[in-house]
Amino acid sequence: MAGSGAHSIAIDECMSLAYVGEIAQEHHVGFLGNLHVTAALFEETEEAAADAQRCLREGQRFPGYVFGLGGPLTQPIPPSRLDAAIATLFTQARGS
């Protein structure tokens, strides 16, 4: 995908940000991802705020990284879990 001529690519929650970051950097494209939607929002087996911090920590190492969901929201979720991820994003953005 990175060599397709696109300016950026979106990745799902199964892809490693570090792996995709290296490829995106090599091809000079941006990339978006990859909050673990399934575990953090649907199954509630991961803390949404902690996973958002993971994304930001791993993604910020690469130019062109954009925080985003690692998949579609295909079922109802507890709004408080998404709020926690968004609050983490804003807190980190203000601190950097």
TrEMBL record:
Bilayer-spanning residue ranges: none
InterPro entries from the UniProt entry: UROD/MetE-like_sf, Uroporphyrinogen_deCOase
Domain Uroporphyrinogen decarboxylase (URO-D): 1-87
SUPFAM superfamilies in the record: UROD/MetE-like
Pfam families on file: URO-D
Organism domain of life: Bacteria
Protein name stated in the entry: Uroporphyrinogen decarboxylase (URO-D) domain-containing protein
Organism: Dictyobacter halimunensis
